[in-house]
Amino acid sequence: MFTGDRSGDWLYAALHRAGYANQPASERCSDGLRLDDAYVTAVVRCAPPANRPTPEERDNCLPYLERELEMLERCRTIVALGSFAWDGALRAIRALGGEIPRPRPRFGHGAEAKAGHWTLLGCYHPSQQNTFTGRLTEPMLDAVFVRAAELTADR
Predict the structure, then answer these.
(1) Residue 64: Cβ within 10 Å count
(2) Which terminal residue of the chain has fewer beta carbons within 10 Å of its beta carbon, N or C?
(3) Nearest-5° Cα angle at 17, 127 to 123
């Protein structure tokens, strides 16, 4: 996931700086990247037209995310890259029987919400649209992974 694209350049560099990745880049699947105490997945499993997934695609793919969360027994912190991922994570958590707070937590960069036995952290997606415009900076991305590490250390 994200290997060989600009979003991945930002994501894997931040994961490396936070100590979750053994190297700061991933160019291809066999380049030796190893993640420690981190797992990267997606709410939608296909590359949709114009890279804009639909709610129907999200709903069709949601069972995959649910199953992954079930298998990741130690996972207690989820970093959602973008509002679409935030919404998908909340839907998956609810489908797994996790309680979603009321009012429903809203996405924002740096947002934090307890949902089920997970803590959900919001982060702007490292897309070129966000990184080229400065909406997402390296320090902003790093801060989210520092917070994820803090939450992980507390458990």
Answers:
(1) 15
(2) C
(3) 35
Three-state SS for 103?
Answer: coil
Residues in the chain, total: 155
Annotation: CATH topology of 6-153? Uracil-DNA Glycosylase, subunit E (3.40.470)
Structure tokens at 147: 């917070």
Q: What is the pLDDT of residues 100-146, one digit of tens each?
A: 999 999 999 999 999 999 999 999 999 999 999 999 999 999 999 99
Tokens describing residue 70:
């079930």
Confidence label for 52 from pLDDT (cuts 50, 70 and 90) = confident
Crossing angle of helices 83-95 and 55-71, rounded to 10°: 60
Q: Provide the residue ranges of all domains of the chain, joining segments of one domain with +.
A: 6-153
In a 3-state reduction of DSSP, which class is residue 120? strand
Structure confidence at residue 62 (pLDDT): 94
